[in-house]
Amino acid sequence: MTTPAKRVARWLKVAGFLGFAAVGVVVWLVVAPPSFDSGTVVPAPDAEMAVATSDQLARAASAQGVCYGWRLESYSTGTSVGSNLGSGVAIDPSRCPKWVEVRADVMWTSSSSEAADSATVTIASSGVPAPPSSRLDRFGLTGSAFVDEPDWAICQAALALPLLVAESGAVPPAPAVTAGAAAGPAPDAGSDFWRDRWPYVLGAAILLALGALIVVIGWFERKHERTRPKGRRGRPTPAKAAAKPVAAGAAEPGAPGAGAAGGA
Fold it and tell me: What transmembrane ranges does the database entry give (predicted)?
């Protein structure tokens, strides 16, 4: 007979199995997440971002006497350029004896490709020393940033050029040019702790919850387990009175002739 306690325990077991299956799916998604993005089109800076960056570079070029620009290249979208001469206008050496340009070649691959996304960043110049591209790392403009946000990263790198050139001592500092002031805020990177460890924290929390569920199931079944009733022995039947032995030749009491025999 199925009791309510057994039905509850059965549902708890089903919930436990589903929980283990959910943990397996979560682990799979964390270790080898599937990719549904097959796009390979690298985004170029939009009109607003490009114009704001060009305006900032124009002020720096006027103060330092050096032209600044950017060039974003990709086989999927072609080449996107800009400079202090205008949005969409590349540096013209005939108009700029001194110039510095940041160049990025970004490649996005489809999800079915075994090749990884990549970005190559260089800084070219004429008339002034070109700062090493590795100095962009201190602004958070690493290779990963160019892969993740190429349009934002190329504008940020262009805005950092006046500061990097001024640090070399070749030109005076440029006033009011700050990397990130015109191209928008940097993407929120989130907490360093949760960025690297949230899958492990989530997995540990799920495992602890499942462990607690298993303990509850065991306790519930033990508490509501029906104990077998002890077998009762049947009441002993009253023993029949033993028949008195009858003498040989004597008639049983109540039998015909018993009284006559007694009178004789």
Answer: 12-31, 200-220
